[in-house]
UniProtKB/TrEMBL annotation:
<protein>
    <recommendedName>
        <fullName>FYVE-type domain-containing protein</fullName>
    </recommendedName>
</protein>
<feature type="coiled-coil region">
    <location>
        <begin position="137"/>
        <end position="164"/>
    </location>
</feature>
<dbReference type="GO" id="GO:0032266">
    <property type="term" value="F:phosphatidylinositol-3-phosphate binding"/>
</dbReference>
<dbReference type="Pfam" id="PF22586">
    <property type="entry name" value="ANCHR-like_BBOX"/>
</dbReference>
<keyword id="KW-0175">Coiled coil</keyword>
<dbReference type="InterPro" id="IPR011011">
    <property type="entry name" value="Znf_FYVE_PHD"/>
</dbReference>
<dbReference type="GO" id="GO:0044878">
    <property type="term" value="P:mitotic cytokinesis checkpoint signaling"/>
</dbReference>
<feature type="region of interest" description="Disordered">
    <location>
        <begin position="225"/>
        <end position="246"/>
    </location>
</feature>
<dbReference type="GO" id="GO:0030496">
    <property type="term" value="C:midbody"/>
</dbReference>
<dbReference type="InterPro" id="IPR013083">
    <property type="entry name" value="Znf_RING/FYVE/PHD"/>
</dbReference>
<dbReference type="GO" id="GO:0009838">
    <property type="term" value="P:abscission"/>
</dbReference>
<dbReference type="GO" id="GO:0005813">
    <property type="term" value="C:centrosome"/>
</dbReference>
<dbReference type="GO" id="GO:0032154">
    <property type="term" value="C:cleavage furrow"/>
</dbReference>
Length: 246
């Protein structure tokens, strides 16, 4: 009896290659049923299942919460956390000094369950009285008034300065001098080399506006499209010779 695999739709001619999923009870070939897992609806017995059932059961087992009895046993096995107070003589000097200061503060400010720290335990030097609050307010107002006075004084000084200075005219205004480009410097910045072979240039083409050596100038301007170009001799300045090792 031939069957068809539910997953890959392959015809199963041999019954030895025919398998049934332990979860969905569908018919599969041996290539599609090869994974074993505990099936929940079969009392968690191990069975070979198809890929779809394997992923479904695995996801379900990951997402479900552990049994209540397991969590109770786990809590019983965990030892209770004990906070042991370290003796003062075992602490380092800095920590010991901090512990002593904290102990003095606890004695000076006893805690109260209803109202927190008692108001009577706060020293008078720390507590803010109405007179202290008024003094702070007066100091803030004095600082603000002083800033306003300084601003008014600055405005008055600027007004007097503008009144004493003569009005600006084209004769009194000094404008920056325009920058004059130095052509000599521009020529020095030009590389005194042939555009083609990078040898020392001896010719300048006025039409191409390029520098050439003697050989490249003859070779290029021998062509018909460059024959009418005008060439002139080129000699770099002494500064350019020294700068570019001409």
């Amino acid at each position: 009896m031939t069957s068809v695999c539910t997953a890959c739709r392959q015809i199963i001619a041999n019954n030895s290659l025919r398998k049934i999923c332990g979860s969905c009870q569908q018919i599969f070939c041996s290539n599609c049923v090869y994974q074993r897992i505990a099936v929940p609806k079969l009392s968690y017995q191990m069975h070979e299942v198809c890929s779809a059932c394997f992923h479904s059961i695995s996801t379900q087992m990951i997402l479900q919460k552990p049994p209540k009895g397991f969590m109770q046993r786990l809590e019983q096995q965990q030892p209770p956390t004990v906070h042991r107070r370290i003796p003062t003589n075992e602490l380092d000097p800095e920590t010991r000094a901090l512990e002593e200061r904290l102990e003095k503060l606890r004695m000076a400010f006893p805690s109260s369950s209803s109202a927190g720290v008692a108001a009577s335990a706060i020293p008078s030097s720390v507590a803010e009285t109405p007179d202290d609050l008024l003094q702070q307010m007066n100091d803030a107002l004095a600082i603000e008034q002083n800033a306003k006075n300084q601003e008014k004084d600055l405005e008055e000084r600027m007004r007097i300065l503008h009144a004493t200075l003569p009005p600006a005219t084209p004769d009194t205004v000094v404008l920056p001098k325009p920058k004059v480009e130095d052509k000599a410097n521009d020529e020095d910045e030009e590389f005194p080399w042939c555009t083609v072979c990078n040898d020392n240039a001896t010719k300048r083409c006025l039409d191409c506006d390029e520098l050439f050596c003697e050989a490249c100038a003859r070779k290029i301007h021998r062509q018909s499209s460059y024959k009418k170009h005008e060439l002139e001799s080129y000699r770099p300045s002494a500064k350019a010779k020294k700068k570019y090792n001409y």
